[in-house]
Design brief:
The chain is mainly α. It is built from 10 helices and no strands.
Length: 204
């Protein structure tokens, strides 16, 4: 019984990864279940045992992507560098994740397209995480006078979501150099003088 359960879990995970790869390459509308099952190395019957439809498989990709986004955005607690450094660090983490994790990348794409009703809104979840961290940064005096947490969050979310969208055609938008340069430009206008010198645009 245990062996069958483990095999079922592995099959489901293989189908989710295969679906993410095909959705990432071809888009949801053009992706075919036959291609997904073949790439996963399972039969069409096994695919339909786990997922009733292509939409159900896309929902599973989004759910998995959301879990991985939560690890990126919430899994690492702010250290001695404070909440502003934490925001820098998680933006680097998101860029690395989008560049290297096809499930996370496909989940963002699926949750923002209108070819099917999205199950989640990964960009809205990301925005909420950034807003919460910058609220804490503001409470701790890490932001420059006159800079509100809402305005800071709007700039960070707009840029990082923009990097995600632009990377569909040019992967260098997710490079460590791109993210670091963004922060080198933004931090002097964002951080209070007391914390600016200690912040690391390349991540800590």
């Amino acid at each position: 019984m245990m062996v069958k359960q483990e095999r079922a879990v592995r099959t489901r995970e293989a189908l989710i990864r295969s679906a993410a790869e095909i959705f990432d390459r071809d888009g949801f509308t053009m992706a075919s279940l036959t291609t997904i099952s073949r790439q996963a190395g399972v039969s069409n019957g096994a695919l339909h045992f786990h997922f009733a439809s292509k939409a159900a498989l896309a929902d599973a990709v989004e759910d998995t992507a959301l879990a991985r986004l939560r690890i990126v955005a919430e899994g690492r607690q702010p250290g001695g560098g404070g909440f502003l450094q934490h925001v820098v660090d998680v933006t680097h983490g998101l860029a690395r994740g989008l560049a290297g994790d096809v499930v996370l990348r496909a989940g963002f794409e699926l949750s923002s397209r209108h070819s099917r009703p999205p199950r989640t809104d990964l960009r809205a979840h990301w925005q909420q995480c950034i807003e919460q961290a910058l609220e804490r940064a503001g409470e701790r005096g890490e932001l420059r006078p006159g800079v509100t947490p809402a305005a800071a969050a709007a700039a960070v979310v707009a840029a990082t979501v923009g990097f995600e969208v632009l990377s569909g055609r040019n992967a260098t938008w997710l490079s460590p150099q791109t993210v670091s340069e963004f922060w080198r430009l933004l931090l002097p206008g964002l951080a209070s003088g007391e914390v600016l010198a200690a912040l690391k645009a390349e991540g800590s």
